[in-house]
Structure formats: C-alpha cells, structure tokens
Amino acid sequence: MTDSTDPGQGLGPEDLKIITLARSARARNGVPEGAAVRDETGRTYVAGTVALDSLRLSALRTAVAMAVASGATSLEAAAVVTEADAPDEADRAAVRDLGGPDTPVLLAGPDGVLRLSTPAG
Question: What is the CATH number of the domain that holds 87?
C-alpha cells in the first residue's frame, strides 16, 4: 500500500486519466462514488454509484460489470473517487476476479488527489 498527497506521484498518464474519469462521473451524477477501470486493450469503463430500491451497486462494482458485459477479459487498473479511507473489500474482490490479485486499485478523494494505491488481492 502506498499513501500519497501528490495526485501524480508514481502514476502514469493512463492512471491519472481513470482517476479524472472517476472524479467526473461522481460530480456529473451527484453520487457518493465515481469509478473507472481500464481493460487489457486500454478501453475504459466509467460508472457512478447505483442506488435503486431494487439494486444497489458501488461505483467500482458497476464499472467492473460494465467491462465484463462489454467483453473485457482482464483489467489493468481500477480507480475509485470517494470520501472513504479505503476501498471496500467487495470492490477489491470484483477487481481481483477480472484483473487478478496484482491489479492496482487507486483510491482518490473528491479533489482527485490519490490517497491510496493497493493491489486488488
């Protein structure tokens, strides 16, 4: 696990991109979390929290589901923008199921500053 207060510290442009996409999904939809994942081909999938009476999904699980439904067979990275201090274990499990235990899960605050980078496993 790595802590950071520098939003670009140790991150390449593609990781910064998925944080930015996750942040914009959160803000645009007015939801508690925004998330983005990048698959093995470089495609990105962006989602916000789903909170219906009959269906509740975190933003990250929704983004993973979108990737799977679109035919992705692996993930390179995942990002979630939230007020939480750590990624939810069920979110990490969803990333791990598709990407494997070493897939990085980037957690950023609403300001887009990276707070934590941890493997899905």
Answer: 3.40.140.10
Q: How many domains does the chain have?
A: 1
Q: Find the length of the chain.
A: 121
Q: What pTM was estimated for this model as a whole?
A: 0.90
pLDDT in tens, 1-50: 444 444 456 789 999 999 999 999 999 999 999 999 999 999 999 999 99
Q: What is the secondary structure of 10-64 as a DSSP string?
A: T--HHHHHHHHHHHHHHHHHT-S-EEEEEETTS-EEEEE-EE-SS-EE-HHHHHH
44/38 Cα distance (integer angstroms):
4
* Domain enclosing residue 43, as ranges: 2-119
State the amino acid at position 57 in one-letter form.
L
